[in-house]
Design a protein that fits this description.
This protein has about 675 residues and is α+β, with helices and mostly antiparallel strands. It is built from 23 helices and 26 strands.
C-alpha cells in the first residue's frame, strides 16, 4: 500500500468522492478526511489522474516515510477574512440604504451583485467546473443554483445573505476541522524529528529514516528516542507514556532494549540500532493508526449511502415544490420557487459527512495516546457491543513472572536432581514456566540436549547423554503412561520423569496483576460477563477465579480455547478475547474482537490482534470498551442533531416558514456543533 497527502482537502464529501472513484479503478482505497491522507494500492500517476478529475483543486503529495507530508497546510486566512469583510460591508450598506436604492435599480444591483461576487466567486467557479464534469449534487452547485434563483426572482438581499453566510460557514468549518486535525495529530506526536548519529568521534544530526541497523546513536537527556535499539553505554530513566499511556518511568542500563517514542529523562545513552525506522515501534504505531481509517464503521458506511440518496431526494422534492403547486393550485411561481430554493440550501449533508469520520479518528487517536491501538473504526463498533470478555490467565490476569515455590522428590531422587533434570528438559523452551525452572536451578547444565520436543499445552520431552526427561502436566504424564502423584496445591505443578521413572514435581507460583481485580470489576460494571480460559490445572484456575469472582475453563489446549469461544458465541455475542497475542493467536483470531496484551515492541502481537494494548495492564480493556461506547454516543448525537435540524428546515421550507439565509445558517451551525461535539472525545 502507498500513502499520499491530499493537500487542500477541506470537504468530507470530496474525500468520499475520491475514495469511491479510486475503488472503481483499484478495488481498495481509503481516504482519511481527519488527516487528509489516502491509502491505496496504485501508482502515483494513477492517483494523480483520478484526483485531478474528481477534485482538481486537491494536490497529491506522496509520503515516502512516516511523518513526511504531514506539515499543516497553510491557508491564506487573511485573504479569506478580507474578502468576507468587504462583502459583509457592501451587504450591510445595501441593507441600510435599501429603500433609497429601490429608486435607482442599477445602483442596487451594482452594490448587491458586487457583494455577491466577492463572497461567492470561488463557489461559482467550482460549481461551473463540477458541472463540466457532470457533478450536480455537490454543495457548490446547489448553493450557486439557490442564490442565482434568488437573484432571478429579485431577492437580491437574500441571495447575498445566503452566499455570505455560506462562505463564512465554510471558512469557520475549515478552521474547526483544521483545529480538530491538529488536536488529533498532537496525540500522535511520538516521532523524534532527528537522530544523533555517532560516526567515530563525531555526532551528526540526521533524519531517523537515514539511520541503518547496527549504527550507534546518542540520546541526550530530554530527547525522544528515535529508533528501536539496545543500550551499549550509559544508564538512564525513560518515560514510556507515549507508547503505553502510563507515566511511570523505567530504568534502563547497558544491554537493555529501548524503543522509539520513549523519552530519555536523565542520563546520556548510546544505543545500537536494531531495526530500521520503517520497522520501528513508532512507525508501526503511526501506520496502524492511520490505516485504521480504511476499516469503516457501520455508521460511516451508512452515512456514505445516505448522503448518496439524501441530496438527490431533496432536490427532487424541491423541483416538485417549484413546479407542481403553481400548475395544480394556480399559485404564484415566485412563492414556490423560493420555497424550493430553501430546500436546495438545506440539501447538503455536511454535518454528517464531516463529523462522523472525525469522531472515529479522534477516538482512535485518544486510545493510541493511552497505549491502546484500535486497528479500525469497525472494531469500535464491536467493542461497544461486547457482552462477554474471555481472558487468558498467564500474562494477562497474572504477571507471568513465575517463581519456583517448592520441589518434591520421590522414588529415591533428590530435590536438586528433580530441579536439574527439569532444567535440562526446559532449557530450550521460551515458556515463562520453563524459564522460571531454569532460573531456579541456576547451575551449569553440563548435559547436552540431543533431542527436544515441545508439546503445546502439555510440556517437553528431551534426551541428553542417555537420559530421557519428561517435564510437564498431568496430561503429558498420562499420555506417556507414567505413574505419578496427584497434587492438589496452590500453584502450577511440573511433573518430572527420568527414563520412564517418576522423579517428583516442582511447584511454580504466579501472582495476580495489581489491576486484574479492578479490570474485572470495571468490566462487570460495564455489563460484560468475564470468563477465564487457561491451560493450567483446575486447582490453579479455581484459586485465581475465586479471587476474581469469575467463571473459568481449565486444562485447555490452544484448540480447546477456540472451541470454548465458539460455544460462547452460540449463546452470546460479541465475544472479546484477551491474550498475549503470540501463544493465543488462534483464539484471538476467532473471537469477534481479539485483544493482545503486552505488545510493546512485539510485531507478532501487533499483527494478530484487532486491538493492541501496548503494556501489561488488563484494566485498559474496560477503558477501551468505555471509549468505544462514548464514541458511539457522540456519533449518534451528531446523526440525531443533523437529521433533526435538516428535517425541521425541510418542513419549514416546504411550508414557507423559513428563509434561505436561516436555512444556510442552520446548515452551517449544525456542522460546527457536530465537529465540536466530536472533539469532546479528545478530552
Amino acid at each position: 500500500m502507498k500513502r499520499y497527502k491530499l493537500k487542500g482537502l477541506s470537504c468530507a464529501k470530496c474525500a468520499a468522492n475520491i475514495e469511491e472513484e479510486l475503488k472503481k479503478h483499484k478495488g481498495f482505497a481509503a481516504v482519511n478526511f481527519a488527516t487528509s491522507e489516502l491509502v491505496v494500492d496504485a501508482d502515483e500517476e494513477e492517483v494523480l489522474e483520478v484526483v485531478k478529475r474528481v477534485e482538481p483543486e486537491v494536490e497529491v503529495i506522496k509520503i515516502d516515510g512516516m511523518g513526511e507530508g504531514e506539515e499543516e497546510e497553510e491557508t491564506d486566512t487573511k485573504k479569506e477574512v478580507v474578502q468576507i469583510a468587504v462583502a459583509g460591508i457592501l451587504f450591510g450598506l445595501g441593507l441600510i440604504f435599501e429603500q433609497a436604492l429601490h429608486t435607482t435599480p442599477v445602483a442596487e444591483y451594482a452594490l448587491f451583485l458586487s457583494a455577491y461576487l466577492i463572497a461567492g466567486h470561488r463557489i461559482l467557479v467550482k460549481a461551473v467546473k463540477n458541472l463540466r464534469r457532470g457533478v450536480v449534487f455537490d454543495e457548490n452547485f446547489l448553493i450557486s443554483i439557490a442564490t442565482i434563483g434568488a437573484v432571478a426572482i429579485h431577492e437580491m438581499p437574500e441571495a447575498v445573505a445566503v452566499m455570505l453566510f455560506f462562505r463564512v460557514g465554510e471558512f469557520m468549518q475549515d478552521l474547526a476541522v483544521g483545529k480538530s486535525r491538529r488536536s488529533i495529530k498532537s496525540l500522535l506526536a511520538i516521532k523524534a524529528e532527528y537522530a544523533n548519529l555517532k560516526v567515530k568521534d563525531e555526532i551528526r544530526r540526521v533524519k531517523p529514516e537515514d539511520v541503518r541497523v547496527g549504527d550507534l546513536i546518542v540520546v541526550k537527556p530530554g530527547e525522544r528516542i528515535p529508533l528501536d535499539g539496545v543500550v551499549v553505554e550509559g544508564s538512564s530513566v525513560v518515560d514510556t507514556s507515549a507508547l503505553t499511556g502510563e507515566s511511570k518511568p523505567r530504568e534502563v542500563a547497558e544491554g537493555e532494549e529501548v524503543l522509539s517514542g520513549m523519552v530519555n529523562l536523565s542520563g546520556l545513552l548510546t544505543v545500537r540500532v536494531t531495526k530500521p525506522f520503517s520497522a520501528s515501534t513508532v512507525s508501526r504505531i503511526l501506520e496502524l493508526v492511520e490505516e485504521a481509517s480504511s476499516r469503516k464503521a457501520k455508521a460511516e458506511k451508512f452515512m456514505t449511502k445516505f448522503a448518496r440518496y439524501y441530496t438527490p431526494a431533496v432536490i427532487a422534492l424541491a423541483s416538485a415544490i417549484a413546479v407542481i403547486p403553481p400548475f395544480v393550485l394556480g399559485e404564484h411561481f415566485t412563492t414556490w420557487i423560493y420555497r424550493a430554493l430553501v430546500l436546495l440550501v438545506i440539501s447538503c449533508p455536511c454535518a454528517l459527512v464531516v463529523s462522523i469520520p472525525l469522531s472515529y479518528f479522534a477516538a482512535i487517536g485518544k486510545a493510541a495516546r493511552k497505549g491502546i491501538l484500535i486497528k479500525g473504526a469497525n472494531f469500535i463498533d464491536v467493542l461497544k457491543s461486547t457482552r462477554v470478555v474471555a481472558m487468558d490467565k498467564t500474562g494477562t490476569l497474572t504477571g507471568g513472572s513465575f517463581k519456583v515455590a517448592g520441589v518434591v522428590a520421590v522414588n529415591g531422587f533428590k530435590e536438586e536432581d528433580v530441579l536439574k533434570f527439569a532444567a535440562i528438559a526446559e532449557t530450550h523452551s521460551n515458556h515463562p514456566i520453563a524459564r522460571s525452572v531454569v532460573e531456579a536451578y541456576g547451575g551449569d547444565l553440563e548435559l547436552k540436549v540431543e533431542e527436544y520436543r515441545e508439546i503445546a499445552g502439555r510440556g517437553v520431552v528431551a534426551s541428553a547423554n542417555g537420559f530421557t526427561v519428561v517435564a510437564g502436566n498431568d496430561l503429558l504424564m498420562h499420555e506417556m503412561e507414567i505413574e505419578h502423584e496427584f497434587c492438589k496445591v496452590e500453584g502450577t505443578v511440573v511433573h518430572v520423569a527420568v527414563n520412564g521413572k517418576y522423579a517428583g514435581y516442582i511447584i511454580v507460583a504466579d501472582q495476580l496483576k495489581e489491576d486484574a481485580k479492578q479490570a474485572v470489576e470495571e468490566l462487570k460494571a460495564a455489563g460484560c460477563k468475564v470468563v477465564m480460559l487457561t491451560g493450567d490445572s483446575k486447582e490453579v484456575a479455581e484459586t485465581i477465579a475465586a479471587q476474581l469472582g469469575i467463571e473459568y475453563f481449565a486444562e485447555l489446549l490452544p484448540e480447546d480455547k477456540v472451541r470454548v469461544i465458539e460455544e460462547i458465541q452460540t449463546r452470546e455475542r460479541p465475544v472479546a478475547f484477551v491474550g498475549d497475542g503470540i501463544n493465543d493467536a488462534p483464539v484471538i483470531a476467532r473471537a469477534d474482537v481479539g485483544v493482545s496484551m503486552g505488545a510493546m515492541g512485539s510485531d507478532a502481537a501487533i499483527e494478530v490482534a484487532d486491538v493492541v494494548i501496548m503494556d501489561d495492564r488488563p484494566s485498559k480493556v474496560p477503558k477501551a470498551i468505555k471509549l468505544a461506547r462514548k464514541t458511539q454516543k457522540v456519533v449518534w448525537e451528531n446523526i440525531g442533531l443533523a437529521l433533526a435540524v435538516k428535517g425541521f428546515f425541510v418542513a419549514l421550507g416546504t411550508l414557507g416558514m423559513a428563509t434561505m439565509w436561516e436555512a444556510v445558517f442552520a446548515d452551517v451551525g449544525v456542522t460546527l456543533i457536530a465537529v465540536a461535539n466530536s472533539m469532546r472525545l479528545l478530552r
